[in-house]
Write a structure and sequence with these properties.
The structure holds two protein chains of two kinds.
Chain A: E1 4-7, E2 10-14, E3 19-25, E4 32-38, E5 45-51, E6 56-59, E7 62-67, E8 72-77, E9 86-92, E10 101-102, E11 106-111
Parallel strand pairs in A: 2-11
Antiparallel strand pairs in A: 1-3, 3-8, 4-5, 4-9, 6-7, 7-8, 9-10, 9-11
Chain B: E1 4-7, E2 10-13, E3 19-25, E4 32-38, E5 44-51, E6 57-58, E7 67-73, E8 76-81, E9 90-97, E10 106-107, E11 111-115
Parallel strand pairs in B: 2-11
Antiparallel strand pairs in B: 1-3, 3-8, 4-5, 4-9, 5-6, 7-8, 9-10, 9-11
The chains are: A mainly beta, B mainly beta.
Chain lengths: ~110, ~120
């Protein structure tokens, strides 16, 4: 089955800095890569996603890049704010059956 | 986006009793719902895939008789933790995808189960 590795497990930055979270996946058949943000005790919320026919996608301060050859994808958050503090999960799936495999999560802490 | 509602959000029960958690898709039909368990500061662990009108598919290591899943309609799946023990205490989350649409999965708000 699919295996998703996510790094780092914890990321601490100063407000205004950029944050980068990286994930790798094992199954070349995976073609959909969502990123979720989960605040403490709450449900994961989709923040951005990318499909395998696209190399990069951006939404305001958030961007995701995908390298299919290397089987890795990354989340980039620019101009971080304290409210960006949360746990971020990457995931990979093959669409269709739509069972995403999640990375272990990255706890992002943005210091004011 | 689509809404998935999970109930209850918190439950405390005594050891040996059973607890039922409901997951509803409020504005779309979900032929498939997923049940996850999440330990503190850990990722989402898929427990089972719930298919409307048929038996659930359980992940390896998940006890079918302990975690009973029923998906009786296109908008409702239930997870029943039977004969609960303190080690079953955890955060349980469901998710659902809209029928026939290859799109994101939407999560319920989760249920914090504490077994005392």
């Amino acid at each position: 089955g699919e295996n998703v590795e996510q790094h780092p497990s914890t990321l601490s930055v100063q407000e205004g800095d950029s944050a980068v979270i990286k994930c790798t996946y094992s199954d070349s058949a995976s073609n959909y890569f969502p990123w979720y943000k989960q605040e403490l005790g709450k449900r994961p919320q989709l923040i951005i996603d990318i499909r395998s026919n696209v190399g990069e996608k951006k939404d305001q301060r958030i961007a995701v890049t995908l390298n299919k050859t290397a089987k890795h994808f990354s989340l980039h958050i620019t101009e971080t704010q304290p409210e960006d503090s949360a746990v971020y999960f990457c995931a990979a799936s093959m669409g269709g059956s739509y069972i995403p495999t999640f990375g272990r999560g990255t706890s992002l802490i943005v210091h004011p | 986006g689509a809404v998935v509602s999970q109930h209850p959000s918190r439950v405390i029960c005594k050891s040996g009793t059973s607890v039922k958690i409901e997951c509803r898709s409020l504005d779309f039909q979900a032929t498939t719902m997923f049940w996850y368990r999440q330990f503190p500061k850990k990722s989402l662990m898929l427990m089972a895939t719930s298919n409307e009108g048929s038996k659930a598919t359980y992940e390896q290591g998940v006890e079918k008789d302990k975690f009973l899943i029923n998906h009786a309609s296109l908008t409702l799946s239930t997870l029943t933790v039977t004969s609960a023990h303190p080690e079953d205490s955890s955060f349980y989350i469901c998710s659902a995808s809209e029928r026939g649409v290859d799109t994101e999965a939407f999560f319920g708000q989760g249920t914090r189960l504490t077994v005392v």
